[in-house]
Every structure is written in structure tokens, then in C-alpha cells.
Design goal:
Chain lengths: 593, 513
């Protein structure tokens, strides 16, 4: 009996063992062999980003976050890119972009043979045409107020330049496209065709039910320019395509359909781990641009700056660009002993104080007196020096020091008069008056609060009565330009490349001209600027405008935000970049030591 | 009972409605969703503001928006309709999708930590209650309050600095110098000597033994580079198994029950034999297989106990089952350790195994063991941080509850009638002390999903907390509401469960409608 029980138990155990081996993994082999399979992958780097990737189309209003643009930048190529001196660099291996005429401004784009998408389809003017259609808003006939018409592509960028163009002229071989502007456009170089041509027209056409890219081109050719005054019923096919363009490329995981993430640049996305990481590998066909060195780039998302620094220290990240703060910079400097390189530089955003051309500041002498009291050096010392000991006040309203023209402009624009606080000079200008000045700023931003207190202290010495008009985070933005204050401290972002932004802030009556600066000569110069297509002439004009602004005692730029990036000793070739692209601007030069 | 539950559920629904209205309005009023565009100098500024306004329906007053949101959310109540609509976040992603992913991330992070915190906390609570006012009691109380009052972001940063970066540096050349080994042994010896009960002589002996043992083990580890090639091996499993067998029997049946002790010891012996048998099988392990093996281990234990028989078969079966489960756990641990060198040398890990961020190494490939180790190395630090800070409440509650019970009349009665101290503690006191703890545990599980916001951000896990913070910082009510609804429903659901459990566990409490 007992023996029977035991043999039963053995039988059960044997059956169980069989069942268990049946459910064994078929990954095969034991542990050591599989680790050999993972093997050496050659050069690779891990870059840390703050935000998580969520779309393969970074041009839409919802998708244009920095991380989407960076991934797109690494996986697509175009006619130009922007370097860290804020110059437009042409990529002649991809194709040629030439200005064939100045009047009317005509630009011819020619794509080289051999440039192709990662599914083998050549990159043609159909792809460029798609970008033109999306960026120009040519077909939109929506009227927001009357709620009529259709808005096709929801493009986040500025359509004003390409809106001046007519339907492009396309060559029969699908390799060159010519666009004509109805009037000269200063930023024509960066209007189209780069830094990446990111959405493939043939995929969009196929998914919208068209035969191929040719059918797409003829569809667009057949449609007239949209007119919001006479809206037409939406074109179903173009609507289908633009809907796909707007949201069809949104994804947090790698799409099952490879056509949704085609590459025509140095890298192809290989895996996406939702909200954790994204990995790109080399595009083996790519030979139409700067040659990338690394085999693989992994992007990991870490929001917290201290966590970024520790990830770098622990070798989980190779390149980081955390939000700069005194703590972060100190922590990074402490890592220099273990081979970490820390790059610091200015960012394109800068704080400034603007004086309203009304109220107590209607009188230029009062503005000038107030500007003389602004302790710019103290503000820099208190706010920026702890991050960057070489920091200096910003001396131009229109240039940043990374641009070549900054130094020239600063010499002549009259900023030298406001280097140091001049209380006596201010008192002289005020001539005994004690104007009451309300300064508005975001009181939830500690830097602005510091700047305000320093200014208040100094201005009070000259006789100004300063009223604290600070508003909370949710209110100060709405209050801009609405009056109710006499001066305001806030930040602008210098575009770095392109001049279209200049009149937005400084031209009479424009949206973002919050302090109502108005100068006829400056207006004229700005009108000339936005139709000037020659870079060196542009710089000359901007210098003149800069001087006009300073001469009219507009207010003062205070300091630029500090950026910092750091990379481990495994990696070489990382260079600081002041604009949004950040360290990614020369990702092809990154190499593993 | 049913009326009570229904009444509670109705109240909960009303609370949920009121609270969600309030949270929606507060979130909507917490900032300016268009702030980032206000100081944009692009000519496209107005169009961008219009697009954002349209996406978030900013032209509609917030209370009206709330009811629109509620209309979509109410569809979640329709079963199988699949028409749940919690709106979209600022990047155009449906909140339901984002919630699904975030929930998994958060649960991965907090589940293990919560279970371990409960187990360790209750154990410590009981031990300190039994040794009230001893050095051990004061020590545990001090540590519990110390960790409780530390801010978690700081604990997490320290853990990363020493537990990850420092430990990884150590692993590069795992050499424990002799003085260090002796010092660690001495510290542990002193701690044990202080914590151990009994006369001075006994404490000193125990301390000395611990000092000698720990130092010797460290010297051995250092000499054999054990940290690079860790493992237990059948000998250690056998020795530790015997210890486990005695401990389990002591707690579950008492050492006087010889049949139970024999069953446990046989289970250990079978375990050591099976150690060799299952190695080839384990090479191809899957998660399902490990679960089945665990079940098999328990069944084998039960079988051994059953075969041993005796007058109290159940006790033997229980002791043997627990023992064989634990021995199985050691075999599993040993197999993970065997996989350690290849994980360590994996080109993705690059010899720095303990991670400071995320839930896994990107692009790592490997079998069950490699991937398991990868999860382990990523979860260990956040788990430790969460355990450290949540330990205090469990130890203190258990200790107080246990002390109260131990002073009850029926405990005195039990002692008076000659019941052994083990039975008094384990059977009479412990079970009753658990009743108040059950409610606390239920509360904690309810708060679990929303409770790790800071831990998530420090360890860069994009879970519910991240969703919540990100929503707040963009003044985007939809994700905030999604998180709120999830957290509120679990919290209220578990509150109800806690109340019901209380009445089920304690016969003195009755639920009346």
C-alpha cells in the first residue's frame, strides 16, 4: 500500500516535470549563450531628454515638442541644417537649393539622385510639395470667426513666407521644384526643405486611397488656392491626407506598419519603449549628408535634473542636457574628476525689462532715468553668475553673442551708456520729480522676483516710487499689453536664425509689441528687413534697428538664460548649441571612444 | 448588509461627483494653459493659441467643460460599450490610453514595495511588542521614525548615490579589505548583541559569533570574488534549509511536534536533491514555469506532511509546505545568481548593474533570468525607498495593537491554563492583533496608486504621479481628472472593503444598515 502511494507520487512528479518542460521558453539555450547573442553592437550612446516622444510628425501644433523634432532631425535629411554659430549650412549631398532670381524671388530645389526613403522609394519633389502644401497653408479656406471652410494641415510653424508663393513648378523627372514668391521674403533659406523632409508623400497618398505620389501631385495641381472669403466644400482626398498628416503619425509605441516611420536620414527608429526610451540605428543606405559615426543612439526620458546627473554618473546615460540650476551645475562640475565634460553656454531666451511708452514713461527723460538705475550687473551677479561665472549682461535687443553680428551691434547701439548704475545721472534727468512706477512680472518665477527687488532698490535711490505689480503664474501672461503697469520684466526667445520675428515685437501696432514702441524709421527699416534676402544686408539693417530701439529708451535686455550639457568620457564630438536643437545639432559627429 | 453596501456606494458616488467637480475647477484655475504662447514672437502665435484653445475648449467656461467631461466619463460606466471617453491630453493622446500605461508602471513600482513593507513592518511590530522597552524596541522605533521623517526625494538620492553608483563602483573590483570586513562584522556583531535578549553573557556570545561569522563570510567573498560570481550552491541551500525547517516548525507547529520537524527536514532534503534535477529545466524557464514550480513545491511539501501523518497531520503538512516553498525560493535565488555574471557583462549593462532610473535597460535581450535580473536591478532602489518610509506606520500600528492584545484577560487566561508561549503569541495574540492592521492595509492599498508621485519622478518612472504632475504643470485638466478618478475610486472601494473586512474579522463588530 505504502509503496503504491510512493509510486503514484513519482508518477505525478514525472507528469508534472513533463508538463513543465512543455511550457519551457523557446528562447533556447542557457544563459551564457544568449548573452553572447546580445553581443557587441559597436558604438552606441544614450542621450537623455526631458520629454517623452509621441509623434513622428513634429510639425503639427500638438506634436512640435523638442523631443519629436530631435528624433525627426536624426532620422531625416534635407537641404540645410543649422550649426551652433546659428548659421544655415547647406547639405549639397542631399540636393541643391538655389536662388535663381531676386525679382521675383525664385528658389529652385533639386534633390540628388540616390536619395531615398528607408523602404527604397526615392525622395522626390512630391515629398517636398507635401511639405510646401502643409507649411504654406495654400489650400486652407477656413474662416475662424464665421466657422466656415476647411483648415487642412495643422502646421505649428509660421506660414507667412510660403503663403506668398504660388503653386510650385515641378520638373518631369520629379527631382526639381521651383517656387516663386510674390514679394521677397527674408527667411526664404529656412522656409522649406529642411532640416528634414519628414513625411513621405507616397505613404500619405497610398493611405488616403490615391494610386501613388504622382496622383498626389496631380491632385494638388488641380486644386486652386483656398480663399477664406469664398470657402469651398472640403476636398475629401486632401482632407484624408491632411488628417493623416495631423494625427496619423502620433504614436507612443513603434507602429506595426513600417511605412509610418520611414527615414531618409542617418538613423532609423528601431524600438520604442513607451515613456521610457527610443532607440535609433544607422540607416544603411544613407550617404547623402554628414556621415554618422555611432551605430546606435538610445534616447531615455528623465524629467528630474538631479536624476539626469546621477544617471550620467552611473553610466546609464552618456549625454545629458538638464535644466541649468546652481545645484545641477555644481553636481556636474563634481563629476569632471571622473572624466565628464561639462559644456556651458547661453540659451536663446533672455530676460528683459520693457518700459511702456505711456503713463509716467511717456517722457523719454523718465525712461532714460529709469534705465540708468537698472543694476544690470548686480542682476547678472545674483541670478546668473552662480551658474556661469563668465556671464555678462546682454547688450542687444536683437542679437545674441553667439551671432557674429552681436559685437558690432553692441559697439554702436548705445548700450554702453547703461553699463553701470548712474543714480546721479538719473536724478539729473528726473529733475526732482518722483514718478510712481508699477512693475509687472511673474512673481512665481524666483529669477524675476530677484530682478524686481534689485531694480526696486536701485530705482528708489533715484527717487522713483516703485509699486510691486507682480502677478501669479497664471495671470501675468494675460496681463501683457493690457496696460495696468508701467514696466514689465519677462522673457523673449531670440529665434537665432531668421528675421520674421523682429517686426512682431518692435513694429508699430503689432501683436507682441506690448509696450507700444513706435518709431517711423524703425518701422521702415523693418519693412525693408523682411524683404531683404541677403544675410549680410539683413545684419546691417538689424544693427540699425537695434540702435533705434536703444536710442528711444525702450527698456533693457538683462541676461540670457544659461544652458548646460554634459557627456561622459565614453563619448566624443558633443558640442554646445544655444537653440532648441541642443546637443543634437551635430549628432553625426558623436563617436564612442 | 446589502443595504449598507448600497448606501455606502451611493454616498461614494456623490462624494466622487462633488470632489471631481472641485478638482476640475481647481485644475482649470491653477494656471494659464496659453502661457507658453504669450511671449512667443512668431507671427503664428494667434493660430497656436487658437489651436490650444480649441483642443482644451478654453472658450467654454470651466464648469461647463466639467459637465462635458462628465458626459464622456459617464460612458465608462456602460459595460462592454467600449465608449469610455476621458478626453485627450495636451499632446492629443486619449487619456484612457495614457492611464492604462501609467497604471501598469505605477503598479510595477509599488506592488512589491507595499507587500514587503507590510510583511517586514508587521514582523518588526510583533517582535518589538514582545520585547517592549528593550534596546531592540528602542532601536527599531528610532529607525522607523527616522526613516518616516526623511523626505523621500532625499532618501532616494542617497540610495542612488550609495546603493547604485557606489555599489557599482565597488563591483568593478569587488575587494573587501580585511579591516573593512572586520569593521562591518564588528558593527553587525554589536547591533545583534544589543538587539538580542537575555543575559549579558548570552548577548556577548551571540555578538561574538555574528562578528566572527560575518567577517569570515566577507573575507571569503572577497577572496573568491563572490560578488562577481555569486551563488549559493547545494551546500548553503542545505544548511540554510535546515535552519528554515527549524524556524518554520518553531513558528507553525512548535519544535515539540517531531513529525512536523521531520516533515520539514525531509522537505529540505528533497529540495536539495531536486536542486540538481531542475537545473536543466530552469535553463529554459518562463514565468509560467516558475509559478507552476512554486505550486509544485507547495504540493510536494503538503504531500510529505501527509505521508508523515501523525496525530496532527495538518501541522506537518503546513510546516513542510512552507519549508519547501522557501527552499524552492532559495533554488530560484541561486539560479538568478548563476545568471549574474552574464548579466553583469551584458553589453547593455556594461558592468554597472544597479540602475538609478527607469524600469528596465533599453534594448536588453536575454532569457528569463537576464530579464528578471534586469527588472530586479531597476526596482530594488525605489522599492527600498518606499519600504523605508512606509515601515514606520506598520511597525507602530502592529506594536500598539499587539501590546493591547497581550494585556487582555484572555491572554492571561491562556497562560494560566498552561498554553505554551508560542501558542499564546502565534494563535491567541497575533491573529487578533491583525484585525486593526487589516483595515490599515486596505487603506494603504487604496492609496497605493496615487501615493508614489515623488518616488516616480525621482526614479523617472512615468506612472500615475507623472501623469498627474504633468497635467497640473500644463494646466491640462483631463489627465489630472483621469488620475483623480482612478485614485478616488480605488481609495473609496478599499475603504469600503476595509470596513467590511473589519466586521468579517471581528465578531464584535456588526454591519447594520
Amino acid at each position: 500500500m505504502r509503496f503504491g502511494r510512493i509510486s503514484k507520487a513519482v508518477g505525478v512528479a514525472a507528469a508534472a516535470a513533463l508538463a513543465l518542460s512543455a511550457c519551457a521558453g523557446n528562447s533556447g539555450g542557457s544563459t551564457p549563450s544568449s548573452s553572447a547573442a546580445a553581443g557587441k553592437t559597436g558604438g552606441s550612446a544614450t542621450v537623455v531628454e526631458v520629454n517623452a516622444f509621441n509623434t513622428f510628425n513634429p510639425n503639427t501644433a500638438d506634436g512640435n515638442t523638442d523631443i519629436n523634432s530631435k528624433v525627426s532631425y536624426a532620422t531625416h535629411s534635407g537641404f540645410y541644417y543649422i550649426d551652433n554659430k546659428l548659421n544655415v549650412v547647406r547639405n549639397e549631398k542631399f540636393g541643391k537649393m538655389e536662388k535663381t532670381s531676386d525679382n521675383p524671388l525664385t528658389v529652385k530645389y533639386t534633390i540628388n539622385d540616390g536619395v531615398k526613403w528607408s523602404d527604397g522609394t526615392p525622395v522626390t519633389t512630391a515629398d517636398l510639395l507635401l511639405q510646401w502644401a502643409a507649411f504654406s497653408g495654400y489650400y486652407n479656406d477656413a474662416d475662424a470667426d464665421a466657422k466656415t471652410g476647411t483648415s487642412y494641415f495643422s502646421y505649428a510653424g509660421d506660414p507667412t513666407g510660403l503663403a506668398l508663393t504660388d503653386f510650385p513648378e515641378l520638373s518631369d523627372d520629379g527631382k526639381s521644384m521651383t517656387i516663386k514668391y510674390s514679394k521677397p521674403f527674408a527667411d526664404w533659406e529656412i522656409a522649406l526643405g529642411g532640416p528634414g523632409i519628414d513625411i513621405p508623400a507616397h505613404v500619405l497618398a497610398k493611405k488616403a486611397g490615391l494610386a501613388d505620389a504622382k496622383a498626389f501631385v496631380s491632385l494638388l495641381k488641380g486644386m486652386p488656392r483656398g480663399d477664406s472669403k469664398a470657402p469651398k466644400p472640403a476636398n475629401a482626398q486632401l482632407k484624408a491626407m491632411s488628417d493623416l498628416w495631423n494625427t496619423g503619425f502620433d504614436t507612443k509605441t513603434l507602429p506595426a506598419d513600417p511605412e509610418l516611420f520611414l527615414s531618409n536620414g542617418p538613423y532609423v527608429v528601431k524600438t520604442i519603449n513607451q515613456d521610457q526610451s527610443l532607440t535609433m540605428v544607422k540607416n544603411k543606405d544613407y550617404n547623402w549628408g554628414p556621415d554618422a559615426k555611432l551605430d546606435e543612439i538610445t534616447v531615455r526620458y528623465i524629467g528630474d535634473s538631479a536624476a539626469q546627473v546621477q544617471a550620467l554618473k552611473n553610466g546609464e546615460a552618456d549625454i545629458i542636457a538638464p535644466q541649468a540650476s546652481a545645484d545641477t551645475v555644481d553636481q556636474l562640475k563634481a563629476l569632471q574628476s571622473q572624466g565628464v565634460t561639462v559644456d556651458q553656454g547661453n540659451q536663446l531666451s533672455y530676460d528683459h525689462i520693457d518700459l511702456n511708452y505711456s503713463g509716467p514713461f511717456a517722457d523719454k527723460n523718465v525712461r532714460e532715468a529709469f534705465m540708468k538705475t537698472v543694476p544690470r550687473k548686480d542682476i547678472v551677479d545674483k541670478i546668473v553668475k552662480k551658474l556661469d561665472d563668465k556671464a555678462k549682461p546682454l547688450d542687444s535687443q536683437l542679437f545674441v553673442p553667439d551671432q557674429a553680428a552681436y559685437a558690432d551691434s553692441v559697439k554702436n547701439n548705445g548700450s554702453s551708456a547703461y553699463q553701470d548704475v548712474d543714480i546721479d545721472g538719473a536724478k539729473k534727468l528726473l529733475n526732482g520729480a518722483t514718478p510712481e512706477v508699477r512693475i509687472m512680472y511673474n512673481k512665481d518665477n524666483p529669477n524675476r522676483v530677484d530682478a524686481f527687488s534689485l531694480i526696486r532698490e536701485s530705482a528708489a535711490k533715484a527717487g522713483f516710487k516703485i509699486v510691486d505689480g507682480g502677478l501669479g503664474k497664471s495671470d501675468w501672461g494675460k496681463a501683457l499689453g493690457k496696460g495696468g503697469y508701467d514696466a514689465t520684466i519677462f522673457g523673449w526667445i531670440n529665434p537665432g536664425v531668421g528675421v520674421s520675428g523682429v517686426p512682431q515685437i518692435f513694429k508699430t501696432g503689432n501683436d507682441s509689441n506690448f509696450n507700444k514702441f513706435s518709431d517711423k524709421d524703425a518701422d521702415k527699416l523693418m519693412d525693408e528687413l523682411i524683404v531683404t534676402t541677403d544675410k549680410s544686408k539683413q545684419d546691417g539693417l538689424i544693427q540699425q534697428i537695434d540702435k533705434k530701439i536703444w536710442d528711444s529708451a525702450y527698456g533693457l535686455p538683462l541676461f540670457q538664460a544659461v544652458g548646460v550639457d554634459a557627456y561622459s568620457d565614453r563619448i566624443t564630438g558633443v558640442k554646445y548649441m544655444p537653440n532648441q536643437t541642443g546637443v543634437w545639432w551635430n549628432f553625426w559627429e558623436w563617436a564612442q571612444k | 448588509m446589502v443595504t449598507y453596501v448600497v448606501r455606502r456606494l451611493m454616498t461614494a458616488a456623490l462624494i466622487l461627483l462633488g470632489a471631481s467637480f472641485l478638482v476640475y475647477l481647481l485644475t482649470a484655475a491653477s494656471g494659464d494653459p496659453l502661457e507658453e504662447f504669450r511671449v512667443n514672437n512668431s507671427p503664428q502665435k494667434q493660430a497656436l493659441m487658437d489651436a490650444r484653445t480649441q483642443l482644451l475648449q478654453l472658450d467654454v467656461p470651466a464648469p461647463v467643460r466639467y459637465f462635458r467631461w462628465l458626459g464622456g466619463a459617464a460612458q465608462c460606466l456602460v459595460p462592454f460599450a467600449n465608449s469610455c471617453d476621458l478626453g485627450k491630453n495636451i499632446a492629443g493622446q486619449p487619456v484612457t490610453d495614457a492611464l492604462g500605461h501609467a497604471l501598469i508602471q505605477t503598479l510595477t513600482l509599488v506592488t512589491g514595495a507595499t507587500i514587503l513593507a507590510i510583511l517586514i513592518g508587521i514582523t518588526l511590530g510583533i517582535i518589538t511588542a514582545l520585547r517592549q522597552y528593550s534596546a531592540l524596541d528602542y532601536g527599531v522605533t528610532f529607525m522607523a521614525f527616522l526613516f518616516f521623517s526623511l523626505p523621500i526625494f532625499w532618501v532616494a538620492v542617497l540610495l542612488k548615490e550609495f546603493g547604485a553608483i557606489g555599489f557599482n563602483n565597488f563591483l568593478r573590483d569587488p575587494d573587501v579589505p580585511l579591516p573593512v570586513a572586520l569593521a562591518i562584522g564588528l558593527v553587525l556583531g554589536v547591533i545583534v548583541a544589543v538587539a538580542a535578549g537575555g543575559a549579558l553573557r548570552r548577548r556577548l556570545t551571540v555578538g561574538a559569533v555574528v562578528f566572527a561569522f560575518v567577517s569570515a563570510v566577507l573575507i571569503y567573498f572577497s577572496a573568491t570574488l563572490w560578488f562577481k560570481n555569486p551563488g549559493l550552491g547545494p551546500v548553503v541551500i542545505a544548511i540554510a534549509g535546515v535552519g528554515i525547517a527549524f524556524a518554520v516548525t518553531l513558528l507553525s507547529a512548535g519544535l515539540k511536534n517531531r513529525k512536523a520537524l521531520q516533515s520539514s527536514l525531509i522537505a529540505v532534503a528533497v529540495g536539495v536533491v531536486l536542486y540538481f534535477v531542475v537545473q536543466p529545466l530552469l535553463d529554459q524557464a518562463t514565468f509560467l514555469m516558475i509559478v507552476l514550480l512554486a505550486v509544485a513545491a507547495v504540493l510536494v511539501g503538503l504531500g510529505i506532511g501527509y505521508l508523515m501523518g501523525g496525530y496532527d497531520r495538518g501541522q506537518s503538512m503546513r510546516a513542510a509546505a512552507i519549508t519547501s516553498f522557501l527552499v524552492g525560493g532559495m533554488i530560484l535565488l541561486d539560479r538568478f545568481m548563476q545568471a549574474w555574471p552574464s548579466y553583469f557583462d551584458n553589453s547593455r549593462v556594461r558592468g554597472r548593474p544597479i540602475a538609478t532610473i527607469g524600469a528596465g535597460t533599453p534594448n536588453i535581450e536575454g532569457d528569463f533570468w537576464i530579464l528578471g535580473l534586469d527588472s530586479f536591478t531597476h526596482l530594488i532602489l525605489p522599492t527600498m525607498a518606499l519600504i523605508l518610509i512606509s515601515l514606520a506606520s506598520y511597525t507602530r500600528f502592529t506594536r500598539a495593537s499587539m501590546l493591547e492584545i497581550m494585556n487582555m484577560d484572555y491572554i492571561r487566561t491562556a497562560r494560566a491554563k498552561g498554553v505554551s508561549e508560542r501558542t499564546v503569541v502565534m494563535r491567541h495574540a497575533f491573529r487578533n492583533a491583525l484585525i486593526p492592521i487589516a483595515t490599515i492595509v486596505a487603506f494603504d492599498i487604496g492609496g497605493l496608486i496615487g501615493g508614489a508621485v515623488i518616488t516616480e519622478s525621482v526614479f523617472s518612472v512615468r506612472g500615475m504621479g507623472f501623469l498627474f504632475l504633468d497635467g497640473i504643470s500644463h494646466t491640462d485638466p483631463n489627465p489630472v481628472m483621469g488620475v483623480f478618478v482612478c485614485v478616488a475610486i480605488t481609495a473609496m472601494g478599499f475603504n469600503l472593503i476595509a470596513d467590511l473586512a473589519y466586521s468579517a474579522l471581528d465578531p464584535r463588530v456588526r454591519v447594520k444598515a
